[in-house]
Each structure stands twice: as structure tokens, then as C-alpha cells.
Amino acid sequence: MWRSVRRSRESGALWRDPSFRALLVQAVLLIALTAVIFVLVFNTMNNLEERGITTGFGFFGERAGFSIPQTLVEYSGNSTYAMTFLVGLLNTLLVSAMGVVAATLIGFLVGIARLSPNWLLAKAAMVYVEIFRNVPLLLQILFWYFAVLRALPSPRDSLSLFEAVFLNIRGLILPEPLPQPGFSAVLWALLLAVVASVLLVRFARRRQDRTGQRLPAGWLSLALIVGLPLAVYAINGFPLNWEMPSLAGFNFRGGITILPELAALWLALSIYTAAFIAEIVRSGIQSVAHGQIEAARSLGLSSGVTLRKIVVPQAMRLIIPQLTSQHLNLIKNSSLATAIGYPDLVAVFAGTALNQTGQALEIIAITMAVYLTISLVVSFLMNLYNARVQIKER
């Protein structure tokens, strides 16, 4: 480019050179952008100073003074705002991870069902997609929370299963596992079984490519993952007790409580996003040439094997980029939890903590940075998987 500019200078018509004009436009845009950022920062700092609002992150060490109904780490009213941020972040990650898994599974099943030769199944899948993707997500969250879960009976009239699991307006109460000495060996056995299963699957694929003989790696892996931990569990004398929930007064004591807010948000996010994923899966499967299916049938392969081994692997190359967008949308849509009071990052940190501290600039900036970081990490992982399933060109 500089050689072109030098030649233009020698010819005497610098403004006629496209490279010079492009460089000039970029320089002007950069200066304008820098000026806009400077003005915004200056005005923000000036307004904060006029209102007597101090800036900084010292509030993280201050006492929060409010309780949170669901915490995955130890938290109390004496905890700091830093712990409030951590609790909100973990709750957001929990519902996002649960939603991504459930929405993906439901979406794939519904997408495949839409292409089923069974008329009733295909129409039912179509009705599901058309209903849930065309109703606003916020209304679906409110429906599951107020119309379904808030209509459950009181704790005294709870729906019970074997007098161990209870369902009422306060949520789903389950027995809580209490690990005893020796339970760590069970966890190590589970980890070893998972690693061995991965190696077994890779060995089975290479063996089939080399000899054409199939090995039931799926069933063997399942038996390994279930059987080895159970064997270690029995050998160590069953090192796991259960704390059973019991009704005491107007509520249950003990056990694990799944809040109705978490259940409503999870259901709404999963069902809503699954409707879009189903259409993505359907379009990806239909993009595979029909000759591939005919060739599989001519070899005597069943419909299930054809779908699992031939159609879906080819369709994934088109599904993954759009699937990534839906996963990101689900994670960001989880911020609608404030509508029903689920204690996610927006509710407890960008809501209650912001109202108490007044540090709007810092808290909102941190919250935006957290969602941006989560989205970038998910995009990075999905892009890695997308690169793995792409056709390798020579």
C-alpha cells in the first residue's frame, strides 16, 4: 500500500489513489471513535462527581445484608457483595447449563419427529414448534410459574412419591445425599469409568475402520460407567446416607428443595429454545442428499442406523453454527428470571446489590462483561466442535 502511495506522490495525484483514500477514511473514523469514547467517559465521570457518587470496586468487601433463597455456595446475610456476585453467577450458570442440555435434546427429538413418516407424530411436532416459538418467552415463563407451579397444593397437602419426594407450592423437595468416609473412592471409580469408556469408543471406531467388525461400545461403556461405581460403592460398605425431608410446621425440613422459580425458568427456556432448534435440525437433515439415504437402504441398514451414522453426521455441519446462536440466546434470555424472582446474576447483583450500593456504572459494566465472557467461551467451544465435524479438504 505504501508503495502505491509513493507512486501516487510521484505522479502528483495522491487523492486519486484508492489505497490512500482508504487509509484516510480509516484514520478519520478512528479519530471520531476515540473522540466519542472520550466525550462519553468525560460526561459520565462529570455527572457522577456532580451527584456525589464515588466510583470504584471497594463495595465488593462490604456486607450485603440480604438473604438469597437459592445458593450453591455458603452464603448468609453477613456475606459480602463479592459473595452476592458469585451466588448470582453460579445460579445463572446452573439454569443456563440445564437449559442448553434440555433444549438441545428436546430440539433434536422434535426436529427428527417432524420428518417422521408417522403422520400423527409429524403433525404433533409441527404443532409444538408453531405454538412455542410464536409465544413470547416472558409470557411462557409467567405461564409456567403462575398458572402451573403456583397452583400446586400447600406443603401440608403436598403430592408425595413413596413419602420421600414431595411436590408443593414451595417447590420440589428431594432427599439429600450425605457422603460418608469412603465415598470419594466411588467418585474416582466414576471418573475412571468415564475415561475408560472414551478410550473404548475410540478403540471400537478404529477397529471397525480397520476390520469392519462392530463392537457394542455403547452398551459396554454404559455397563462400565454404572457397574464400576456401584461395585466400589458396595465394597466400601455403602458410604452414602440420605437425609429425608419431613414436614415441620408449615414447611419441610431437610432434603434438597428445587425452587418453583428455577423449575419455571428452566421449563420455559428449554421448551422455547427447543422449538427453534427443532427447525434447525429439520433443515439440516433435509439438506443431506436423498441419495445418501437410498444408498444406506440398499446396503440393508435400518432407519435408525442410517439416521445416526449417515444423515445426522452430515447434517451437523449445517446445524452447529445455528445451534450456537440458539445456545447463546438461551443464556442471555435467562436474565428474564427477574420477572419471577429467580436469584440469578441480574436479579441479585444488578438488582438488589445495585439498589443498595448505588454503584450503577461498575455493577452494570461487570454484569455485561460476565454475559459477554460466557457467550465468547460458549462460541469458542462450539466453534472447536464445528471445526472437528467439518469436511477436511486436501
From TrEMBL:
One GO cellular component term: ATP-binding cassette (ABC) transporter complex
Domain ABC transmembrane type-1, chain residue ranges per copy: 89-382
Chief place of localization: membrane
InterPro entries: AA_ABC_transptr_permease_3TM, ArtM/GltK/GlnP/TcyL/YhdX-like, MetI-like, MetI-like_sf
GO biological process: amino acid transport
Transmembrane segments: 20-42, 81-110, 131-152, 185-204, 216-235, 255-278, 336-354, 360-385
GO MF terms held by the record: transmembrane transporter activity
Keyword Cell membrane assigned: yes
Aminoacyl-tRNA synthetase recorded as keyword: no
Protein's membrane topology: Multi-pass membrane protein
Pfam family, one: BPD_transp_1
Protein family (similarity comment): Belongs to the binding-protein-dependent transport system permease family. HisMQ subfamily.
Entry protein name: Amino acid ABC transporter membrane protein 1 (PAAT family)
Organism: Chromohalobacter marismortui
